[in-house]
Specification:
The complex is a heterodimer of chains A (816) and B (50).
Chain A (H helix, E strand, L loop, with lengths): L36 E2 L2 E2 L3 H12 L5 H4 L22 H7 E4 L3 E7 L6 H7 L2 H4 L3 E7 L4 E7 L5 H10 L8 H5 L5 H29 L7 H22 L1 H12 L6 H20 L7 H18 L19 E6 L2 E6 L8 E4 L9 E5 L2 E4 L10 E3 L4 E2 L4 E2 L4 E5 L7 H4 L10 H7 L2 H27 L4 H11 L3 H20 L2 E3 L3 H8 L2 E5 H5 E11 L4 H11 L5 H10 L9 E5 L3 E6 L2 E6 L1 H4 L12 E5 L2 E11 L3 H9 L3 E5 L7 H8 L4 E3 L4 H13 L4 E5 L5 H6 L2 E6 L11 E4 L6 H34 L5 H29 L7
Parallel strand pairs in A: 17-24, 17-26, 24-25, 26-27, 27-28
Antiparallel strand pairs in A: 1-2, 3-4, 4-6, 5-6, 7-8, 7-9, 9-15, 10-13, 10-15, 11-12, 11-14, 16-28, 18-23, 19-20, 20-21, 21-22, 22-23
Helix pairs in contact in A: 8-9, 8-12, 9-11, 9-12, 10-11, 11-16, 12-17, 12-28, 15-16, 16-27, 17-27, 17-28, 18-27, 20-21, 27-28
Chain B lengths: L1 H26 L6 H7 L10
Chain lengths: 816, 50
C-alpha cells in the first residue's frame, strides 16, 4: 500500500522530479539524487550534509529528534567573505550590547527561526564552538543573545557559524543606529500592578464600613481603615495615574482639551475631597472608586497598546541597507561603515548586494534589480560609465562602482527626508480622534450643569454647594467614555489581528473607518511574486526544446532563466557554437541546427503591437515561437475590487509599464484612475493631491518604493506574504493570504466608531443616573462604589459583544 | 481585638509580597517570550552555562 506523506508540503515544484524522490534528512526538500548521503540519510545538497556533519560531530543530533526535517535548505551557499566586515572592530562594536574587552554580549536577529529544533540548536551554540559561553533565543522576536569571550572567538566567526548551520543572522544598518527603548510598555504594566494591588486592598478595607450600614463600626477600626485607605491611595494617585496627568498637561500646553483633562480634574477632586472627609472625620471618602477607575482605565490602555513583538512598523531604508560595504583602496579592500562612505569611494558589490549610494558603474556587467525603488520587476542592464541608484540590487557577477552622492543624499534615501516623514502620524491621529471631540462637548455640558447646581444651592442652602458640585464632578468623570473607546479599540485590534490585519496602534482603526479612497500599488500587491509563462506560434517539439534548453541554460539573463524554468530539465547536449549578444539575445549552433533567442530585431521577426508584447522570440532554424512572461494577479483581486468599488474611490499606482492597462481598467471601472511608470515621489504626490481634494486616503502597497506614499496617506497598509518579513514603515500590515477578507476587515474597523458611540450613550445614561442623585446632594460612597464597577463592567461587555457580533456578521473568524 | 490589627497587617503583607513578585517577574523579562518558554520546558536537558 502506498502511503501518503502529509508532512511534505515543502515540495519545490520548479525542480524537475526525475525519479521517486526522498525528502532531505536535514531540510525536507525533495532530493534530486540519492548520491549525497551519509549511511541511509539522504541530503538534497552538500550544504545540508555539511550541517548534519557539524551537528553529528558535536553530538547535537537531538536537533533532528524534536522535529523531522527541521533545517533550512542550504542550496544557496553564502559567499565566503560575506561577513569579513565584522573583523573591523569599529563596525562590530556597534552590534555589541555589552563588552568589557573580553566578555561580550551580542543580540542577532535570525529570520529563519521557526520551530523547537531551531531553539534547541541555537541554545546549544556553546557546544559548537569554544568561546561561546551562553546563547539564549527569544523565540517571539527571533533574536538570539550570545555571550562570548572575544579572546577566544570573534563575532565574524560566530556569525559565519550561524550561517553555516543555516541560521544566517540579518544584520543591517538599522542595528548600528537603533537605540532600543522598550521600557515604555513595562512602565505601564508596573503602574497597572500597583493600581490593582491598592484597589483590591482599599475595597477590602472599605467593606466593613459599607456593610455595617446604619449601626456604624467601632471608631478605632473605622479610623484605622481610613488611614490605611489614604496610605494605599497615595501610590495610585501619584504613581499609577501619572500617565493621565502628563497626557492632560501636554494637551493643555497645546491648548487642547483632550479627554484626559476632565478625567484628571475628576481624579483631583475625588482625591482631595476624600482626604478632606477623612481628615475632618465627616465621611470615608471615595478612594475605592478612584483607585478602581484608575485601575480599569489602565487595563484599557494595556489592552489597547498590545504590541506585536515580531512585527515592526517603523522600518526605513536603514533596515534594508547593509551595515558595511567593501571599499577598494590603495591598500586593498577594506570594510567601511556605511555612514562613513564618502563621495569618490570605490565600492565592490557581489551578487544580491544592495547599492548603498548613488554611484557610477566602473567595472563589470551590472544587472540591477530596482524592485525596491520602483516596483518594476525586471532587472535593468547598465553599461560601465552609467549611473546606478541607491536601493538597487545587483544580480549576477561582481561589479565595481564609484560613489557620487553620500548615502543620505541619494535618490531613494532622500525620500525619507521628505517632510511627510517628519510628522508623527500616531500623535496626529490621536489629536483628531473622535473621543477627544466628544469629551470636549461633554466637558462643556458638565461645567454648565455644575454652575447651574451651584447657583441653585446658593439660593436654597449655601452649605450644600461644595458637596453637591464636587460630587457631580466626581460622578460625571468621562472615564466611561475613555473606557468605552479603549476597550472597543482593544477588542477590534484583537479581532483584526486574528484575521490577519495587524495595526500599529489603536488610532489607525478610526482612520481606516474614515477612509474614502483606496489606492493600490500593482506589483507585489495586486500581483503575486510568481510569474506565469506561455508560448504562441510554433509549438516546440521535445528535440527542439532540448536545443533551446541547452542554449538558454548558459545565460544568466532573467528571461533565459525564466525560459529554462518553463521548459523543465533536459540532458546536456554538445553545442558547436554559442554567442551571447548583450542586450539583444543568444545564438547557438547544435549540429546542423541553429537556435536564436532574443528580441524581435535579433531573431528577425516583425514585432507585435505594444499592448501584448512577448518577452522574447525563439527561432529554431526557421520556425518562430513567441515566449510570454506575465505576472499573475492574486486570485482574490477579481472579486475584491468590485466589492470595494461600491464604497470607495479607487486608484492604481504602478511603477511598471502599462502593458496591462486595459485589463486593469475593466477591473477597476472606467471612473478609476490608473497611473503607470510612477516613481516613489510621484506616488507620494498623487496621494497628497487626493488629500488636498478632501479625500482620506488608504494606501495598500508592499515595497520600499511605496514607502513615501504609505507615509503620506492617512492609512498605509503593507501587504506581506510573510508578516515577519521586512516591510516598509506603515500603519498596518495585512497578511497576503487574508487579502480576500480585506473588505470585511475594513467594515469591522468602520463599525468601531459606532460601537464607541453606542457605548458612550450607555455611559451617559449611567452618568445621568449618577448626576441626578448627586445634584440632589444624596450621593454617598456606597452608591459610588456600586455604580463604578457596574458601569465599567457593562461597558466592557457591550463593546466586546458588539465588536464580535459585527465581526461574525462580516464573516470573520473570532479566534486566531 | 488586637488580633484584628495583626490579621490586617498580615493580609496587606501577603498582598504586597505578590505585588513585588509580579514587578520582579516583569522586570526580569519573564513575559517577553511566552512562546519560547513553553517550548524550552519540553526539552530534555537543561542548558549548561560554562
Amino acid at each position: 500500500m502506498p502511503t501518503i506523506d502529509t508532512e511534505r508540503n515543502t515540495i519545490i515544484i520548479s525542480k524537475p522530479v526525475v525519479h521517486k524522490s526522498t525528502a532531505c534528512y536535514h531540510c525536507g526538500t525533495d532530493c534530486i539524487t540519492d548520491s549525497i548521503a551519509i549511511e541511509e540519510k539522504v541530503f538534497c545538497c552538500e550544504g545540508c550534509k555539511l550541517v548534519y556533519e557539524i551537528l553529528n560531530d558535536n553530538g547535537l543530533c537531538d536537533y533532528y529528534k524534536l522535529q523531522s526535517h527541521p533545517g533550512l535548505t542550504q542550496i544557496k551557499p553564502a559567499r565566503a567573505d560575506k561577513f569579513a566586515y565584522l573583523d573591523n572592530e569599529e563596525i562590530a562594536s556597534k552590534l555589541y550590547k555589552f563588552t568589557d574587552g573580553n566578555h561580550t554580549m551580542v543580540t542577532l536577529y535570525i529570520p529563519g527561526v521557526h520551530c523547537a529544533s531551531c531553539m534547541w540548536l541555537l541554545e546549544h551554540m556553546n557546544k559548537l564552538a569554544a568561546g561561546i559561553t551562553e546563547s539564549r533565543l527569544n523565540f517571539t522576536s527571533k533574536e538570539v543573545t550570545i555571550r562570548f569571550k572575544k579572546d577566544t572567538i570573534t563575532l565574524r566567526r560566530i556569525v559565519e557559524l550561524l550561517t553555516t548551520i543555516g541560521y544566517e543572522p540579518y544584520i543591517s544598518l538599522d542595528d548600528a543606529t537603533q537605540s532600543k527603548t522598550k521600557n515604555h510598555n513595562k512602565q505601564l504594566i508596573y503602574k497597572l500592578g500597583v493600581a490593582g494591588f491598592c484597589f483590591g486592598n482599599i475595597m477590602l478595607m472599605s467593606f466593613p464600613e459599607y456593610l455595617s450600614l446604619d449601626k456604624g463600626i467601632e471608631y478605632e477600626y473605622a479610623f484605622l481603615f481610613r488611614i490605611l485607605n489614604v496610605v494605599l491611595a497615595l501610590p495610585v494617585f501619584f504613581y499609577s495615574a501619572s500617565a493621565f496627568f502628563s497626557s492632560a498637561w501636554a494637551g493643555l500646553k497645546q491648548r487642547i482639551l483632550n479627554i484626559d483633562a476632565p478625567i484628571v480634574l475628576a481624579l483631583i477632586i475625588t482625591f482631595s475631597r476624600s482626604i478632606y472627609e477623612i481628615a475632618t472625620n465627616t465621611g470615608s471618602g471615595y478612594l475605592d472608586s478612584m483607585s478602581g477607575i484608575v485601575f480599569f482605565m489602565l487595563v484599557g490602555r494595556v489592552v489597547q497598546e498590545r504590541a506585536y513583538k515580531s512585527i515592526s512598523f517603523h522600518r526605513d531604508y536603514k533596515s534594508y541597507f547593509p551595515i558595511a560595504v567593501n571599499v577598494v583602496t590603495k591598500d586593498g579592500i577594506i570594510s567601511k561603515n556605511l555612514q562613513d562612505l564618502q563621495e569618490k569611494d570605490v565600492v565592490e558589490l557581489h551578487n544580491d548586494e544592495i547599492i548603498p549610494a548613488d554611484a557610477i558603474l566602473v567595472k563589470g556587467s551590472a544587472r540591477i534589480d530596482y524592485s525596491f525603488v520602483t516596483g518594476e520587476s525586471e532587472p535593468v542592464l547598465v553599461e560601465a560609465g552609467k549611473q546606478v541608484y541607491a536601493g538597487g540590487k545587483q544580480v549576477g557577477e561582481k561589479i565595481t562602482i564609484q560613489v557620487v552622492k553620500p548615502v543620505a543624499a541619494s535618490y531613494l534615501t532622500s525620500l525619507w527626508n521628505h517632510h511627510s516623514f517628519a510628522k508623527n502620524k500616531a500623535e496626529k491621529n490621536n489629536r483628531e480622534s473622535i473621543i477627544h471631540v466628544m469629551s470636549k462637548y461633554f466637558t462643556i455640558v458638565l461645567f454648565v450643569l455644575a454652575a447651574t447646581t451651584a447657583v441653585y444651592w446658593w439660593v436654597n442652602d449655601p452649605a450644600k454647594i461644595l458637596p453637591s458640585v464636587s460630587a457631580m464632578l466626581i460622578v460625571a468623570c468621562p472615564c466611561a467614555l475613555l473606557l468605552a473607546a479603549t476597550y472597543t479599540n482593544g477588542n477590534l485590534l484583537r479581532l483584526l489581528s486574528n484575521n490577519g490585519l495587524y495595526l500599529r496602534d489603536a488610532t489607525v482603526i478610526e482612520q481606516i473607518g474614515d477612509a474614502t479612497h483606496i489606492v493600490f500599488d500593482k506589483t507585489g500587491t495586486l500581483t503575486q511574486g510568481s510569474k506565469q509563462f506561455h508560448t504562441t506560434g510554433h509549438q516546440l517539439t521535445e528535440t527542439e526544446k532540448a536545443w533551446v534548453y541547452n542554449t538558454a541554460s548558459h545565460s544568466k539573463h532573467p528571461y533565459s532563466k525564466a525560459l529554462v524554468k518553463y521548459l523543465g530539465a533536459f540532458p546536456t547536449l554538445e553545442i558547436d557554437k554559442w554567442e551571447e549578444h548583450t542586450g539583444k539575445g543568444l545564438y547557438a549552433a547544435i549540429g546542423n541546427n541553429t537556435v536564436q533567442i532574443g528580441s524581435a530585431a535579433f531573431t528577425g521577426v516583425t514585432a507585435e503591437s505594444d499592448s501584448n508584447k512577448p518577452a522574447l522570440y525563439i527561432r529554431v532554424n526557421d520556425k518562430v515561437t513567441a515566449f510570454y512572461v506575465t505576472t499573475e494577479f492574486r486570485q482574490e483581486v477579481a472579486q475584491l475590487i468590485p466589492q470595494l468599488h461600491k464604497r470607495y474611490g479607487l486608484s492604481l499606482l504602478s511603477g511598471d509599464n502599462d502593458r496591462q492597462r486595459e485589463q486593469l481598467q475593466t477591473l477597476f471601472g472606467q471612473n478609476s484612475t490608473l497611473l503607470f511608470e510612477q516613481k516613489p515621489l510621484h506616488k507620494l504626490n498623487y496621494i497628497k493631491q487626493l488629500q488636498d481634494q478632501g479625500g482620506k486616503v488608504l494606501m495598500v502597497g508592499d515595497g520600499l518604493n511605496d514607502a513615501g506614499a504609505l507615509q503620506q496617506s492617512n492609512v498605509g497598509i503593507t501587504l506581506a506574504d510573510d508578516i515577519n518579513n521586512f516591510t516598509p514603515s506603515c500603519d498596518a500590515i495585512l497578511d497576503a493570504g487574508k487579502f480576500g477578507k480585506f473588505p470585511a476587515l475594513l467594515q469591522l474597523a468602520y463599525s468601531g466608531k459606532y460601537i464607541i458611540y453606542f457605548s458612550f450613550i450607555i455611559s451617559i445614561l449611567y452618568n445621568i443616573v449618577g448626576l441626578s442623585i448627586s445634584m440632589q446632594g444624596k450621593m454617598n460612597p456606597m452608591i459610588a462604589a456600586i455604580l463604578m464597577p457596574v458601569s465599567t463592567l457593562s461597558i466592557v461587555l457591550i463593546t466586546t459583544g458588539l465588536g464580535s457580533l459585527v465581526a461574525k456578521k462580516a464573516g470573520l473568524s473570532l479566534k486566531a | 481585638m488586637s488580633a484584628l490589627y495583626l490579621l490586617i497587617l498580615a493580609s496587606i503583607a501577603v498582598a504586597a509580597f505578590f505585588l513585588i513578585a509580579f514587578i520582579w517577574s516583569v522586570r526580569s523579562n519573564q513575559f517577553e517570550d511566552k512562546q519560547g518558554a513553553a517550548m524550552r520546558m519540553l526539552q530534555d536537558d537543561e542548558i549548561t552555562i560554562n
